[in-house]
Specification:
Blueprint: H1 3-26, H2 34-41, H3 62-77, H4 82-94, H5 102-114, H6 135-140, H7 145-156, H8 163-180, H9 185-198, H10 215-228, H11 232-240, H12 246-261, H13 268-273, H14 276-292
Helix pairs in contact: 1-12, 1-14, 3-4, 3-14, 4-5, 7-8, 8-9, 8-12, 10-11, 10-12, 11-12
Length: 304
């Protein structure tokens, strides 16, 4: 196997591990302000557990759970299966997870009751629940930007049908592809600049300091701290210490930083603290998804 292929697989593993670690790191700070975090933790930089969900150290939330539902569906189906994804979401919801967002719950229940795979468009559904879970779809479509766009929007519409959510998913998918292929931050920044041209809402300079569940606030926070950071750890720590929807901003930032900085940059103390079952499963799942992607047989850089 070529060194290039090994590098992409390693970055994919780091992306999925980064998502889970960012989720577990940020969860205790969810719904807190940056000032409250500082008062309680000083700087939150360990997987301490607790928070309003009373998590164990290293335990993950719905961000990682839903990404696993998506990834497992693709591997089990041997290809893209929107019904398989929705079935996994439904089984997960029936298991009474520790946390689930209202928009996700409503969309999944719609599927369970009516078999609906696309929720109706709703101006109030511009939350971050679709982008937080979509990493497996990006890994699965590496090498085919058009297919990535189709897949990430399709999985989003099970629960979230809003232009800003769609735009965030597509941009995040492109960023993951670029990072997996080893592109520089300047190239990733151009991708985000293109998003801002199309949707001025996502402009993050100057950063407004909002990290709510609104997809625009979420992505502004991720962009701000990712492009300012110089390491995987710095990116995640600064992101989650902003507070707000810290498990989700942490998960998204962790996936992107993992793909960009690579496995070797993930602190060993975080890997040791992460829930063991999650830590064992997500790297294997990431590898399998990349090996199912169009890039397996042909490496193609994204156009533009």
């Amino acid at each position: 196997m070529s060194r290039e292929t090994e590098d992409v697989k390693s970055r994919a593993r780091a992306a999925f591990l980064g998502l889970a670690i960012g989720d577990a790191l940020g969860a205790p700070a969810e719904f807190m302000t940056s000032g409250e975090i500082g008062h309680k933790y000083g700087v939150l930089k360990e997987l301490v557990g607790g928070g309003w969900l009373r998590l164990k150290p290293g335990q993950v939330t719905d961000d990682t759970d839903m990404a696993l539902c998506l990834g497992r569906a693709l591997v089990t189906s041997g290809g893209w299966s929107l019904k398989g994804i929705a079935d996994n979401f439904a089984a997960w919801l029936k298991s009474r997870p520790i946390d689930v967002g209202d928009t996700c719950r409503r969309g999944i229940r719609n599927y369970m009751l009516h078999g609906t795979l696309e929720t109706p468009a709703n101006e109030w559904d511009a939350g971050n629940g679709a982008v937080m879970r979509m990493l497996p779809a990006a890994l699965f479509t590496l090498g085919d930007e058009a297919r990535m766009t189709e897949c990430v929007v399709a999985q989003a519409h099970i629960t979230h049908n809003h232009p800003l959510s769609d735009a965030a998913c597509i941009c995040f998918g492109r960023l993951i592809h670029l990072a997996l292929l080893g592109h520089a931050k300047s190239r990733l920044r151009r991708e985000v600049d293109g998003l801002i041209v199309r949707h001025e809402n996502f402009r993050f300079d100057p950063y407004r300091g909002l990290a709510t569940g609104y997809v625009v606030d979420t992505m502004q926070t991720v962009f701000h701290y990712f492009f300012r950071s110089r390491s995987f750890e710095e990116c995640l720590v600064t992101t989650v210490n902003q507070g707000g929807d810290a498990d989700t901003t942490g998960a998204i930032a962790g996936a992107l930083a993992g793909a960009y900085y690579g496995e070797q940059e993930i602190p060993k103390r975080w890997l040791k603290k992460l829930d063991r079952k999650i830590g064992d499963e997500v790297p294997r799942l990431a590898e399998r998804l990349v090996m199912m992607s169009p890039s397996r047989s042909e490496r193609r850089e994204l156009s533009r």
